[in-house]
Structure formats: C-alpha cells, structure tokens
Specification:
Strand order of the largest sheet: 2-1-3-4-5-6
CATH class of the largest domain: Alpha Beta
Number of domains: 3
Strand content: 15-25%
Structural class: alpha/beta
CATH architecture of the largest domain: Alpha-Beta Horseshoe
Radius of gyration: 22 Å
Shape: globular
Number of helices: 12
Amino acid sequence: MKKIKQHKVQIISLGCPKNLIDSEVMGGLLNKSGLHIVDRNDSADIVIVNTCAFINPAKEESLEELLTLAEEKKKGKRQFKLVVAGCLAQRYGKELSAQIPEVDLFIGTGEVGNIVRHINKLDEIKFRRATAITKPDFLMTSQHPRILSSMMTSAYLKISDGCSNSCSYCVIPWIRGKARSRTPNDILREAENLAVRGIKEIIITGQDTTVYGRDLKGQPSLSGLLNDVAQIKGIKWVRLLYTHPAHITKDVLETIVANEKICRYIDLPIQHIDDTILSAMNRKLSGAKIKEVIAQARQIIPGVALRTSLIVGFPGETQRRFEKLLDFVRETKFDHLGVFIYSREEGTSAAQLKSQILEKEKERRREIIMSEQAAISNAINKSLIGSTQEVLIEEKNDRPDYDFMGRCRRQTPEIDGITYIKNKQAKIGSIVKCKIIAADDYDLFGEII
C-alpha cells in the first residue's frame, strides 16, 4: 500500500501514563512511515485523539475534546480527518460512530501497532467512515519506535499491559485485556534505548506492576527486573508505580533499598481500609494486611515516600466506614494521596450493588480527605526544610525568584508536587543537590548547593 508522506498529524493524548506511551508509539510508527508529527499549535490535516474511559470524569474529558474538534470540522474552520483511538474507542466506538459523524475512524486499544495501516486507509478514494475495534491484546516491544519530546528528561517504561485483578468497580480488563508481561530482555533493550536518547529517569509502569512476570515462562521477578534496569549506564533514577498492596513482596522492598538508583518511593493504591468495602471491591486483602504492608515498607526502606489513591462514595460506604478511612489517612500520613469519587460504570458488578451514594455526598467526602491531606503534606514538606535533596532539573520557570523547576526523588511527574530551584545557571536534564529553603502544601523550594 502506498505510504502517505504529505500529511501532518497531531496526536492529543488524554488519560494515564500508559495511554501516553501508546500515543508515543503511534507517533513513532507514523513518523517512521514518513508522516510529520506536529504539536497542537500547528495546522494538522489528521488529528488523532487517544482517549481515556476509566471513570466518568475521564470519559467526559475525552468527549469534550472530541465534540470540540467535531464542531470545528462541522463549521469548516479547518479541514482534517478525525481519528479516535484508545480506551473510549475500545469501549464505546460503535455507539459513538453513530452519534459523532464527524469522526472518520475509531480504533481500539488493540490496534495501536497497526496505526500506519489505518491512517493510510484514510487517503483511499473508496474510504468510508469506519471502526476497528478488535481484541485488546496489543503489547508493545522494544522494536516499536516512540516519539519523545526533545526536552524530556524522564520516560515511562511499560513492563506489562492489561489486568486480571477483576476489581468490582473497574473496566480495565475489558478495555485493555488480561494481564500480559513483556520479556525482561525486551524491557531492558528499551531502557537502554531510552538511556541513549538522554533519558535520566525511568518510571516503571503497568496496570499492576507487582504481578509482572507471572504469565511468562520461568516467571521472572519484578525485583530482578528492577535490579537489572538500575544497572543500565546513563539511567540515574528508577521509579516504581502501580504496585498492588496484595501483591507487593518483601524482595521488591529490599531491592529498592539496596539500589542507590531506585527512588525510595512507592505508589501503593489501597482504595479503602474498611474490610467490608475492600471485599465488595474485590481487592483480595484486608485492612490489616494493608497496614502490615505499609509498616513493612517503612521498616525496610527508611524515609520511603508513600503515595496512595483512595475511592470515596463506594456503594455501602456508610458514614462510619468513611470516618474509618479518614482516621486511617490521619494516622498513616501518606506523603502523597489522591482521591477518586466512585464512578458507577456500566457492566461492572459494583454498578449493581445497593446503597449507591449521592454525587453531592461523594464530593463532600472527597473534599474532606483532600483537605486533611493538604495539612499532612504541608507538615511533611515543612519537615524537609534544611534537608539536602537531589533534584532533576526539567524546565525553566517564569517566576523571577525561582529560575527552574524540577523534581526530587520524592516526586513523580504530574501527580505529585514540584521543586522550584533558585539558580540561574542550572542545566535542564542535570541532577543537582539542593538545600530545601521553603515549602507549601505540595511543592518544595530550594537552592543549589
């Protein structure tokens, strides 16, 4: 099939880091085929929106983006082909095709590797609007090119895709398929490629990184993989995300503390602490086990920064059960914490549960926990004043008093705070030692030593 080389393609990536990697892969494949990938400020004749459909707010954001573009196209403000990819397309592509006729093509999560073929078809004379929703079984390899920003200092590394945990509120197994791991050698090849491209920080990601390797011959371990990634020349930091509290093991914690390159940071989504709610969520562990895991992490890894995510307003979350969660947040003092409002997703078993909670009450509960967490985070950050932290410099800052922005080992991109740096000579991509001189609820302020 003749390749199209004259087109400019814009990719709008929504949702999580795992979705971002898919966007980077699609961009890499299209760029390799001869197309030009442009940013949002340039005029593109093909626009790909890589969507999210995990919970209602994510669906709403994706739909808002699509409807805005559809309106532009409808009014003739500019001429372009509109392609919808990712989770929303996988979940609702056939229905949306009838509702948004301005979309030329819907492709599901299983079609990421076939993006060039799909885009080529847009130029065929006989092309008609289409949907390509297939089994969600795509798994990238080190052979897939990724288009990265030239300014990037960190990159996500997806070690697996899909999920087999079957949490009662979650649609990921349907959208992304069952859990499947990449081989260790393939992951290491990609990590080496990223190091050659100047990436300083590798952020390990997957739907559940702690079940990595269980589906592979020989069952390679997450701890072994972390140790091997940490040996790669050029990589300065390794960070681990999406660890399930029911699956994280002592050897993973010991590997983190034993390797200087691995950040003493664990993302541990617990969702709740009440046993009745955890059981209804099908989380496969108790509140006591969660507390045990947290205590073990803090014992094995001194100074570990813990991030978690919670769900409030789950069916059956009485006021007493909510207050139990709130008390747990106050006692545990997570370094970073995010709260999701329970989203009643059609097709999930939780959607059928009785005792659904009003949206207004869900919002109230979220605000209470986030307010409590702001005070906890502020106290933790204030305790860091006077300490020395390694900071990865990421970009210049417009503030006159702090010239650059970056992150210390305690901070993950986008979801945690940032560290502002007072130094006019800092170099983007460098890792410098800084003295923390001020702090607020979520951010740190430092000067280079």
